[in-house]
Amino acid sequence: MPQYEQEQIQTVIDKIQAADWERITEQIHHQGFALIEQVLSTEQCELLQQLYPQAELYRKTVDMQRYRFGRGEYKYFTYPLPNLIEQLRHEVYSHLAPIANAWFRVLKIAQTFPASHAEFLQQCHQQGQVLATPLILKYEQGGFNTLHQDLYGEVYFPLQLVIVLSQPNRDFTGGELVFTQQSPRAQSKAMVMQPQQGDLLIFTTQFKPEKGSQGYYRVNIKHGVSPVLHGQRYSLGIIFHDAVS
């Protein structure tokens, strides 16, 4: 790895380690998501955007309209991942594993997440989930993503992250991240966020625990992207579990 690239990646790791993880943990427990501002520089975001046309980096391209997922396109990286994405995936996982274990414990789900991401991927591979899931998404004007959950097999990690690589209100308008929260026997609650370029947003993959009068129960959460009104929106998605297909 070139020295300059190594220094840039170390800067990102330092920012993640320096984040207030006590506050982030409280936010994730309470609302199912948390934001870490300016983890990637403008230069790093632009370099990641420039990876999009490099076909050899990807294992699969999805036309969202074809599958009625929305309107836009996304590409799943193949292994080996670009260095920055690989390091981001491993570093953030180590901070999230204790949260995931706490969630599964209170919900009485019989699974424990190991401290290191490499060990967790071994669990995926034992179930035949061996394909990379980090992806870059591209939306043009009118593009959007329907509400969904990113599950790729029996083994899954209950948190994931996204980094918007374009700058809202400069490169695009619209294109907000939308979350819907469905509690049992209640109307859905919608939440809308617009991270800035380089911000890292952690959010729940499928559900979060909520404490009720009879103990903890699951609150189901889906996410999507509202229509892009103007311009072009790129984002990097990092899912921690691997996929079957």
Automatic annotation (TrEMBL):
Gene3D superfamilies: q2cbj1_9rhob like domain. Residues 130-243 form the Fe2OG dioxygenase domain. Coiled coil: none annotated. One of its GO terms (molecular function) is oxidoreductase activity. The keyword Iron applies. Keywords: Iron, Metal-binding, Oxidoreductase. The keyword Iron applies. Pfam families: Oxygenase-NA. It comes from the Bacteria. Belongs to the iron/ascorbate-dependent oxidoreductase family. This is Prolyl 4-hydroxylase. The lineage of its organism: Bacteria, Pseudomonadati, Pseudomonadota, Gammaproteobacteria, Moraxellales.
